[in-house]
Automatic annotation (TrEMBL):
One Pfam family this sequence matches: PLA1
PANTHER family hit by this protein: PHOSPHOLIPASE A1
Subunit structure: Homodimer; dimerization is reversible, and the dimeric form is the active one.
Cofactor annotation remark: Binds 1 Ca(2+) ion per monomer. In the dimeric form the Ca(2+) is bound by different amino acids with binding of each Ca(2+) shared with ligands coming from each monomer. The Ca(2+) ion may have a role in catalysis.
UniProt binding sites for Ca(2+): S106, S153, D188
Source organism superkingdom: Bacteria
Entry protein name: Phospholipase A1
Gene3D superfamilies (UniProt xref): Phospholipase A1
One GO cellular component, as annotated: cell outer membrane
Listed cofactors: Ca(2+)
Ranges annotated as spanning the membrane: none
Lineage: Bacteria, Pseudomonadati, Pseudomonadota, Gammaproteobacteria, Oceanospirillales
Main location: membrane
Source species of the chain: Oceanospirillum linum
Length: 276
């Protein structure tokens, strides 16, 4: 299993030294079938200001405040490796984002988004220009919903392709998705791609235990007037187990309930893992 997991690491985490070190740590845990590995960032932000709280309240007919707690759980599990080449892998992943009105009466959860994925990845590790490398690509299918029914339901299914580049302490990824059509009578949000976008550009930089990330989503048909931008910074704390985490977002699609509302968010808390 360890040899197969080494191939998994090569398939999905082969580029920069920072990703390689993370992969090596994960390989040590991968022989245990009960262990899930981190996928995206896992964090808890006890203080998160959200400018769209009144718009969200109108959606649900509830009273919300501008400050809430926010957390993300994101895990993956290797299914198999070496399916078609020595450096490919099939993985299952699950991400959950929750927005918790912790400081309001009865402390309700304003929204939770559920996102399971099936991912196939291939490592290429090809040099392009000087230190720039084409590290590989992934193909997958993704479902995202808020788990609600009736008028509150928001969901969509997508096929996606993502390509990864690396240069020194930098990591770059470009992702393009294609929505799987639904019957008009069953579509809760027919115009969601017009606001959330059809592609995503992500960049990450790591130095001295600090990790900076930038992500931009957009839809070219909107003349880049819609979409979403996100910035995050994870930084060392006194202990080594957790890191401080600052998250800022602006644009459309902060949550599924408010996908067509332009909002801003800034939150501060701790992260359990970095993407680098």
């Amino acid at each position: 299993m360890a040899d197969k997991m080494e191939n998994t690491a090569k398939a999905l985490f082969n580029p920069p030294s920072a990703l390689r070190k993370r992969a090596e740590r994960e390989i040590k845990l991968a022989d245990d079938p009960l262990v899930f590995l981190p996928y995206k960032a896992n964090y808890f932000l006890p203080v998160s200001y959200y400018s769209g709280y009144q718009k969200s309240a109108g959606f649900r007919g509830a009273e919300y405040g501008p400050v809430e707690a926010q957390f993300q759980i994101s895990l993956k599990f290797p299914i198999d490796t070496g399916l078609f080449t020595e450096n490919d892998a099939l993985m299952a992943a699950y991400t959950q984002q929750s927005y918790w009105q912790l400081y309001e009466q009865s402390a309700p959860f304003r929204e939770t988004m559920y996102e399971p994925e099936l991912i196939y990845g291939v490592s290429l590790n090809q040099s392009l220009l000087k230190e720039l490398k084409l590290e590989g690509f992934t193909l997958g299918i993704n479902h995202q919903s808020n788990g609600q029914g009736g008028d509150f339901s928001r969901s969509w299914n997508r096929l996606f392709a993502e390509v990864f580049f690396a240069s020194g302490d930098w990591g770059i990824a470009f992702k393009r998705w294609f929505r799987i059509p639904e019957p008009a009578s069953e579509d809760d949000n027919p115009d969601i791609k017009n606001y959330v976008g059809i592609s995503e550009l992500g960049m990450a930089y790591t130095k001295s235990s600090h990790v900076l990330t930038f992500r931009m989503r957009n839809h070219t048909d909107s003349d880049f007037s819609r979409g979403n931008m996100q910035f995050s910074w994870s930084f060392p704390l006194a202990g080594e187990r957790y890191k401080g985490y600052l998250l800022m977002r602006t644009g459309y699609g902060d949550t599924l309930a408010d996908y067509d509302k332009y909002t801003h968010r800034v939150g501060l808390g701790i992260s359990i893992n970095d993407i680098l």
